Amino acid sequence: MKALIINDVHKKYHNGVHAVKGISLSIDELSFTAFLGKNGAGKSTLMHMMSTLTEITSGSIKMFDYDVTKDDEKIRSLIGIVFQHSMMDGILTVYDNLSIRGSMYGLSKESLHNRILEVSKTLDIEELLKREYGSLSGGQRRKVDIARALLHQPRILILDEPTTGLDPKSRQELWEYIHQLRVSSSMTILLTTHYLEEVMDADQVIVINEGLMIENASSHALREKYTRTKLYLSGNGPLEQSLIQDSIQYVVHQNRYVIPLSSPFESVEIVSKYQPLIQSFEVIQGTMDDVFFALTSEDQ
Ligand code: ADP
User: Has domain 228-284 been given CATH number 3.40.50?
Assistant: First the structure.
Protein backbone atom coordinates (compact mmCIF):
# COMPACT_ATOMS: atom_id res chain seq x y z
CA MET A 1 0.00 0.00 0.00
CA LYS A 2 1.11 3.55 -0.65
CA ALA A 3 1.56 5.67 2.46
CA LEU A 4 1.84 8.84 0.45
CA ILE A 5 0.97 9.99 -3.05
CA ILE A 6 2.05 13.48 -4.04
CA ASN A 7 0.74 14.78 -7.32
CA ASP A 8 2.15 17.87 -9.04
CA VAL A 9 2.42 19.87 -5.85
CA HIS A 10 3.44 23.52 -5.93
CA LYS A 11 4.07 26.02 -3.17
CA LYS A 12 4.30 29.73 -3.78
CA TYR A 13 4.77 31.75 -0.62
CA HIS A 14 3.17 35.17 -0.25
CA ASN A 15 6.57 36.80 -0.77
CA GLY A 16 6.64 35.31 -4.26
CA VAL A 17 9.14 32.51 -3.53
CA HIS A 18 8.19 29.47 -5.60
CA ALA A 19 9.61 26.94 -3.13
CA VAL A 20 8.13 23.74 -4.61
CA LYS A 21 7.67 23.61 -8.36
CA GLY A 22 5.54 20.61 -9.27
CA ILE A 23 6.68 17.54 -7.38
CA SER A 24 5.04 14.14 -7.91
CA LEU A 25 6.07 10.98 -6.08
CA SER A 26 4.74 8.07 -4.08
CA ILE A 27 6.07 6.33 -1.00
CA ASP A 28 5.43 2.74 0.06
CA GLU A 29 4.04 2.00 3.47
CA LEU A 30 6.75 0.93 5.99
CA SER A 31 9.57 2.20 3.82
CA PHE A 32 12.32 4.60 4.82
CA THR A 33 12.61 7.56 2.49
CA ALA A 34 15.23 10.29 2.61
CA PHE A 35 14.73 13.73 1.08
CA LEU A 36 18.10 15.14 0.23
CA GLY A 37 18.90 18.65 -0.87
CA LYS A 38 20.86 21.77 -0.08
CA ASN A 39 19.51 24.43 2.27
CA GLY A 40 16.62 26.24 0.65
CA ALA A 41 15.89 23.39 -1.80
CA GLY A 42 12.26 23.12 -0.64
CA LYS A 43 12.39 20.02 1.57
CA SER A 44 10.85 21.56 4.67
CA THR A 45 8.16 23.24 2.62
CA LEU A 46 7.18 19.87 1.19
CA MET A 47 7.15 18.31 4.68
CA HIS A 48 5.04 21.21 5.98
CA MET A 49 2.53 20.75 3.18
CA MET A 50 2.15 17.02 3.78
CA SER A 51 1.81 17.68 7.51
CA THR A 52 -1.05 20.17 6.89
CA LEU A 53 1.04 22.98 8.40
CA THR A 54 1.24 25.07 5.29
CA GLU A 55 -1.28 25.39 2.51
CA ILE A 56 -0.71 23.65 -0.81
CA THR A 57 -0.79 26.22 -3.63
CA SER A 58 -1.79 23.62 -6.24
CA GLY A 59 -1.68 19.85 -6.74
CA SER A 60 -2.68 17.19 -4.24
CA ILE A 61 -1.26 15.07 -1.43
CA LYS A 62 -2.90 11.84 -0.36
CA MET A 63 -1.88 10.01 2.80
CA PHE A 64 -3.24 6.47 2.95
CA ASP A 65 -6.93 7.05 2.15
CA TYR A 66 -7.02 10.69 3.16
CA ASP A 67 -6.53 13.97 1.35
CA VAL A 68 -4.44 16.80 2.73
CA THR A 69 -6.70 19.89 2.95
CA LYS A 70 -9.96 17.86 3.05
CA ASP A 71 -9.06 15.48 5.90
CA ASP A 72 -6.49 17.49 7.85
CA GLU A 73 -7.56 16.37 11.30
CA LYS A 74 -7.32 12.70 10.35
CA ILE A 75 -3.96 13.29 8.69
CA ARG A 76 -2.59 14.94 11.81
CA SER A 77 -3.52 11.83 13.78
CA LEU A 78 -1.60 9.65 11.32
CA ILE A 79 1.68 11.53 11.48
CA GLY A 80 4.31 12.25 14.07
CA ILE A 81 6.55 15.17 13.22
CA VAL A 82 9.91 16.28 14.52
CA PHE A 83 10.81 19.68 13.18
CA GLN A 84 14.06 21.53 13.46
CA HIS A 85 12.64 23.83 16.11
CA SER A 86 11.35 22.03 19.15
CA MET A 87 7.88 22.70 20.49
CA MET A 88 8.81 21.90 24.09
CA ASP A 89 8.73 24.21 27.08
CA GLY A 90 12.23 24.66 28.47
CA ILE A 91 11.20 25.20 32.09
CA LEU A 92 8.94 22.17 32.34
CA THR A 93 10.19 18.67 33.01
CA VAL A 94 10.41 16.20 30.16
CA TYR A 95 7.55 14.21 31.69
CA ASP A 96 5.29 17.27 31.92
CA ASN A 97 6.12 18.30 28.39
CA LEU A 98 5.25 14.83 27.09
CA SER A 99 2.16 14.75 29.22
CA ILE A 100 0.86 18.10 27.90
CA ARG A 101 1.57 17.14 24.30
CA GLY A 102 0.02 13.69 24.80
CA SER A 103 -3.15 15.07 26.38
CA MET A 104 -3.96 16.64 23.00
CA TYR A 105 -4.47 13.18 21.58
CA GLY A 106 -7.38 12.31 23.86
CA LEU A 107 -5.69 9.48 25.75
CA SER A 108 -6.87 8.73 29.29
CA LYS A 109 -4.47 9.79 32.09
CA GLU A 110 -3.42 6.21 32.71
CA SER A 111 -2.90 5.22 29.10
CA LEU A 112 -0.96 8.42 28.53
CA HIS A 113 1.26 7.66 31.53
CA ASN A 114 1.91 4.14 30.22
CA ARG A 115 2.58 5.42 26.75
CA ILE A 116 5.10 7.98 28.05
CA LEU A 117 6.94 5.19 29.86
CA GLU A 118 6.85 3.04 26.75
CA VAL A 119 8.27 5.66 24.36
CA SER A 120 10.83 6.72 26.98
CA LYS A 121 12.07 3.16 27.10
CA THR A 122 12.29 2.94 23.31
CA LEU A 123 14.39 6.09 23.16
CA ASP A 124 16.30 5.42 26.36
CA ILE A 125 15.23 8.67 28.03
CA GLU A 126 13.71 7.25 31.22
CA GLU A 127 16.47 8.91 33.24
CA LEU A 128 15.58 12.27 31.77
CA LEU A 129 11.86 12.34 32.57
CA LYS A 130 12.30 14.43 35.74
CA ARG A 131 14.80 16.83 34.22
CA GLU A 132 13.83 20.25 32.87
CA TYR A 133 13.76 20.11 29.09
CA GLY A 134 15.84 23.31 28.94
CA SER A 135 18.67 21.67 30.87
CA LEU A 136 19.19 18.85 28.37
CA SER A 137 21.94 18.56 25.76
CA GLY A 138 21.07 18.93 22.08
CA GLY A 139 21.13 15.17 21.50
CA GLN A 140 18.92 14.47 24.54
CA ARG A 141 16.41 17.10 23.43
CA ARG A 142 16.14 15.53 20.02
CA LYS A 143 15.37 12.16 21.56
CA VAL A 144 12.65 13.74 23.70
CA ASP A 145 11.27 15.47 20.58
CA ILE A 146 11.09 12.12 18.82
CA ALA A 147 9.44 10.51 21.87
CA ARG A 148 6.84 13.29 21.76
CA ALA A 149 6.17 12.59 18.09
CA LEU A 150 5.63 8.89 18.83
CA LEU A 151 3.12 9.29 21.68
CA HIS A 152 0.01 8.80 19.57
CA GLN A 153 1.50 5.85 17.63
CA PRO A 154 1.66 7.54 14.25
CA ARG A 155 1.81 5.50 11.06
CA ILE A 156 4.17 7.99 9.44
CA LEU A 157 7.09 9.61 11.23
CA ILE A 158 8.46 12.78 9.64
CA LEU A 159 11.92 13.87 10.74
CA ASP A 160 13.02 17.24 9.41
CA GLU A 161 16.81 17.41 9.69
CA PRO A 162 16.78 15.64 13.05
CA THR A 163 20.54 15.62 13.46
CA THR A 164 21.36 19.14 12.30
CA GLY A 165 23.34 21.09 14.86
CA LEU A 166 24.33 18.05 16.92
CA ASP A 167 27.92 17.15 17.61
CA PRO A 168 29.18 14.08 15.71
CA LYS A 169 28.84 11.73 18.69
CA SER A 170 25.23 12.75 19.43
CA ARG A 171 24.43 12.54 15.73
CA GLN A 172 25.76 9.03 15.58
CA GLU A 173 23.83 8.01 18.70
CA LEU A 174 20.57 9.54 17.54
CA TRP A 175 21.03 7.95 14.18
CA GLU A 176 21.28 4.55 15.84
CA TYR A 177 17.97 5.14 17.62
CA ILE A 178 16.30 6.13 14.38
CA HIS A 179 17.71 2.98 12.84
CA GLN A 180 16.30 0.86 15.67
CA LEU A 181 12.92 2.53 15.34
CA ARG A 182 12.88 1.59 11.70
CA VAL A 183 13.51 -2.02 12.49
CA SER A 184 11.30 -2.35 15.56
CA SER A 185 8.26 -0.26 14.70
CA SER A 186 5.82 -0.57 11.88
CA MET A 187 6.12 3.00 10.68
CA THR A 188 6.82 4.68 7.41
CA ILE A 189 9.71 7.05 8.03
CA LEU A 190 10.43 10.21 6.04
CA LEU A 191 13.61 12.10 6.73
CA THR A 192 15.09 15.27 5.35
CA THR A 193 18.80 15.77 5.60
CA HIS A 194 21.82 17.27 3.99
CA TYR A 195 24.12 14.71 5.57
CA LEU A 196 24.86 12.24 2.85
CA GLU A 197 25.85 9.37 5.07
CA GLU A 198 22.34 9.39 6.53
CA VAL A 199 20.74 8.39 3.25
CA MET A 200 22.99 5.41 2.56
CA ASP A 201 20.48 2.82 3.72
CA ALA A 202 17.27 4.53 2.64
CA ASP A 203 14.86 2.47 0.53
CA GLN A 204 14.19 5.54 -1.54
CA VAL A 205 16.23 8.72 -1.90
CA ILE A 206 14.51 11.78 -3.30
CA VAL A 207 16.87 14.53 -4.32
CA ILE A 208 15.35 18.00 -4.39
CA ASN A 209 17.04 21.00 -5.95
CA GLU A 210 15.51 24.45 -6.32
CA GLY A 211 11.99 23.16 -5.74
CA LEU A 212 12.23 20.33 -8.25
CA MET A 213 12.65 16.61 -7.74
CA ILE A 214 15.75 15.75 -9.70
CA GLU A 215 16.11 12.11 -8.63
CA ASN A 216 13.99 9.41 -7.05
CA ALA A 217 15.71 6.04 -6.63
CA SER A 218 17.38 3.77 -4.09
CA SER A 219 20.71 5.00 -2.76
CA HIS A 220 22.30 1.97 -4.37
CA ALA A 221 20.85 2.85 -7.77
CA LEU A 222 21.97 6.47 -7.41
CA ARG A 223 25.50 5.44 -6.60
CA GLU A 224 25.53 3.09 -9.60
CA LYS A 225 24.24 5.83 -11.86
CA TYR A 226 26.27 8.81 -10.72
CA THR A 227 29.48 7.52 -9.28
CA ARG A 228 32.40 5.61 -10.67
CA THR A 229 34.92 3.54 -8.90
CA LYS A 230 38.38 4.99 -9.38
CA LEU A 231 41.82 3.50 -9.33
CA TYR A 232 44.56 5.71 -7.85
CA LEU A 233 48.08 4.83 -8.95
CA SER A 234 51.34 6.22 -7.65
CA GLY A 235 54.31 5.85 -9.93
CA ASN A 236 56.67 7.96 -11.93
CA GLY A 237 57.34 9.03 -15.52
CA PRO A 238 57.52 5.54 -17.07
CA LEU A 239 54.09 4.69 -15.62
CA GLU A 240 52.54 7.78 -17.17
CA GLN A 241 54.21 7.05 -20.52
CA SER A 242 52.77 3.52 -20.50
CA LEU A 243 49.27 4.78 -19.69
CA ILE A 244 49.51 7.23 -22.58
CA GLN A 245 50.87 4.55 -24.93
CA ASP A 246 48.02 2.20 -24.05
CA SER A 247 45.42 5.00 -24.38
CA ILE A 248 44.23 4.61 -20.80
CA GLN A 249 42.19 7.64 -19.69
CA TYR A 250 43.48 9.25 -16.52
CA VAL A 251 43.74 12.54 -14.69
CA VAL A 252 46.47 13.59 -12.30
CA HIS A 253 45.33 14.42 -8.78
CA GLN A 254 47.77 15.12 -5.94
CA ASN A 255 50.61 13.37 -7.75
CA ARG A 256 48.54 10.25 -8.41
CA TYR A 257 47.11 8.97 -11.68
CA VAL A 258 43.36 8.57 -11.29
CA ILE A 259 41.69 6.12 -13.65
CA PRO A 260 37.88 5.84 -13.75
CA LEU A 261 36.73 2.21 -13.86
CA SER A 262 33.51 0.63 -15.01
CA SER A 263 33.92 -2.05 -12.36
CA PRO A 264 36.29 -2.54 -9.40
CA PHE A 265 37.57 -5.74 -11.05
CA GLU A 266 39.06 -3.75 -13.88
CA SER A 267 41.67 -2.58 -11.37
CA VAL A 268 43.11 -6.11 -11.12
CA GLU A 269 44.03 -6.16 -14.79
CA ILE A 270 45.54 -2.68 -14.76
CA VAL A 271 47.52 -3.18 -11.58
CA SER A 272 49.01 -6.50 -12.72
CA LYS A 273 49.89 -5.12 -16.13
CA TYR A 274 51.80 -2.10 -14.78
CA GLN A 275 52.97 -3.63 -11.51
CA PRO A 276 56.71 -3.01 -12.01
CA LEU A 277 56.00 0.70 -12.55
CA ILE A 278 53.58 1.16 -9.64
CA GLN A 279 54.69 2.26 -6.17
CA SER A 280 51.25 1.96 -4.58
CA PHE A 281 47.61 1.81 -5.60
CA GLU A 282 44.16 2.30 -4.11
CA VAL A 283 40.66 1.50 -5.40
CA ILE A 284 38.00 3.94 -4.18
CA GLN A 285 34.28 3.27 -4.59
CA GLY A 286 31.92 6.14 -5.39
CA THR A 287 30.02 7.66 -2.47
CA MET A 288 26.76 9.54 -2.00
CA ASP A 289 28.89 12.70 -1.94
CA ASP A 290 29.71 12.12 -5.60
CA VAL A 291 26.00 11.61 -6.32
CA PHE A 292 25.04 14.81 -4.58
CA PHE A 293 27.77 16.75 -6.28
CA ALA A 294 26.86 15.34 -9.70
CA LEU A 295 23.22 16.24 -9.18
CA THR A 296 23.42 19.66 -7.63
CA SER A 297 26.59 21.24 -8.93
CA GLU A 298 26.04 24.66 -10.47
CA ASP A 299 27.11 23.68 -13.98
CA GLN A 300 24.27 21.15 -14.32
P1 ADP B 1 14.92 23.39 2.80
O2 ADP B 1 14.06 22.73 3.82
O3 ADP B 1 15.27 22.48 1.67
O4 ADP B 1 16.12 24.06 3.39
P5 ADP B 1 12.77 25.33 2.62
O6 ADP B 1 11.56 24.56 2.23
O7 ADP B 1 12.91 25.71 4.04
O8 ADP B 1 14.06 24.56 2.10
O9 ADP B 1 12.83 26.67 1.76
C10 ADP B 1 12.60 26.72 0.35
C11 ADP B 1 12.51 28.17 -0.09
O12 ADP B 1 11.32 28.75 0.43
C13 ADP B 1 13.65 29.05 0.42
O14 ADP B 1 13.93 29.99 -0.59
C15 ADP B 1 13.06 29.72 1.64
O16 ADP B 1 13.66 30.98 1.89
C17 ADP B 1 11.60 29.88 1.23
N18 ADP B 1 10.68 29.86 2.40
C19 ADP B 1 10.60 28.88 3.33
N20 ADP B 1 9.63 29.16 4.24
C21 ADP B 1 9.09 30.34 3.85
C22 ADP B 1 8.04 31.18 4.37
N23 ADP B 1 7.34 30.83 5.44
N24 ADP B 1 7.75 32.32 3.70
C25 ADP B 1 8.44 32.67 2.59
N26 ADP B 1 9.44 31.95 2.04
C27 ADP B 1 9.77 30.80 2.66
Answer: no
